[in-house]
């Protein structure tokens, strides 16, 4: 079953702007992950945030987690055309070693 | 190179035929997974295996079968009982709570 809901479903911005995507989930988690998928390809892991962490950075990526609201956000700063992809959140709410993925946000960066 | 290898990239079959999708890994992952992705949607878990000779159903196992005779291989058979088999199929591997590594997918079209 799909646990995550991502918002927005699609986002189109100009190169250089920041992009923010949100993910909400329903049950308790140990960690939340964000993945990226280029069109027609497999998913690539971006960042993992544990339930006892509130914020994590990796390069131009910033992830926040609010367990009280059961929500997470992914911020991509100074976007580039190469950031055009779909972005998915995934939680371990399915049990050990069973990730449950959201519907994804389709991000388009316009040059 | 290490990774998850799925083959073929594109597969076409007539309705009523069984078809097997290949997934091989050389990352020494204990667990392997099969996900289905429909256009504009997230991933849904079909089957997963945590050890050799053992596997469990995911959320949408009906019409699919798998085997895990060796650690490196986790083939998926789409049977004629699957009512709507046309989709993008993704194989992944992982160990413990580590992020998943994905293959580049097989796009199956059944007519």
Q: Would you mind describing this structure in some detail?
A:
The complex is a heterodimer of chains A (111) and B (111). Chain A is an all-beta fold and 111 residues long. Chain A is 0% helix and 54% strand. Chain A contains no helices and eleven strands. Chain A has strands at 5-7, 10-14, 19-24, 31-37, 43-50, 55-58, 61-66, 71-76, 85-91, 100-101, 105-110. In chain A, the strands form two sheets. In chain A, strands 2, 4, 5, 9, 10 and 11 form a six-stranded mixed sheet that branches. In chain A, a hairpin with a 2-residue loop joins strand 6 (55-58) and strand 7. Chain B is mainly β and 111 residues long. In chain B, the strands form two sheets. In chain B, strands 2, 4, 5, 6, 9, 10 and 11 form a seven-stranded mixed sheet that branches. In chain B, a hairpin with a 5-residue loop joins strand 4 (31-37) and strand 5 (43-51). Chain B is globular, with a radius of gyration of 13 Å. The termini of chain B are far apart. The A-B interface holds A 1-2, 4, 30-31, 33, 35, 40-45, 48, 88, 92, 94, 96-104, 106 and B 4, 6, 31, 35, 40-45, 48, 50, 58-59, 88, 90, 92, 94, 96-97, 99-105, 107.
Blueprint of the fold:
The complex is a heterodimer of chains A (111) and B (111).
Chain A: E1 5-7, E2 10-14, E3 19-24, E4 31-37, E5 43-50, E6 55-58, E7 61-66, E8 71-76, E9 85-91, E10 100-101, E11 105-110
Parallel strand pairs in A: 2-11
Antiparallel strand pairs in A: 1-3, 3-8, 4-5, 4-9, 6-7, 7-8, 9-10, 9-11
Chain B: E1 4-7, E2 10-13, E3 19-25, E4 31-37, E5 43-51, E6 54-57, E7 64-66, E8 76-78, E9 87-94, E10 101-102, E11 106-110
Portion of residues within helices of chain B: under 10%
**Overall 3D shape of chain A:** globular
Radius of gyration of chain A, Cα only, in angstroms? Answer: 13 Å
Poorly predicted sequence stretches spanning 5 or more consecutive residues of chain A? none
How many strands of chain A? 11
Biggest interface pair, counts = A-B, 27 and 28 residues
Please tell me how large the radius of gyration of chain B is.
13 Å
Mean pLDDT of chain B: 94
Indicate the structural class of chain B: mainly beta
Sketch the topology of chain A as an H/E string, one letter per element.
EEEEEEEEEEE
Helix count from the secondary structure assignment of chain B: 0
Strand content of chain A: over 45%
Q: Report the oligomer.
A: heterodimer
Shape of chain B: globular
Given helix and strand content, the structural type of chain A is: mainly beta
How would you state the average pLDDT of chain A, rounded? 92
Question: How many β-strands of chain B, per DSSP?
Answer: 11
DSSP strand (E) fraction of chain B?
Answer: over 45%
Largest sheet of chain B: 7 strands, mixed
> Could you list the spans of chain B in which at least 5 consecutive residues all have pLDDT below 50?
none
- Approximate helicity band of chain A: under 10%
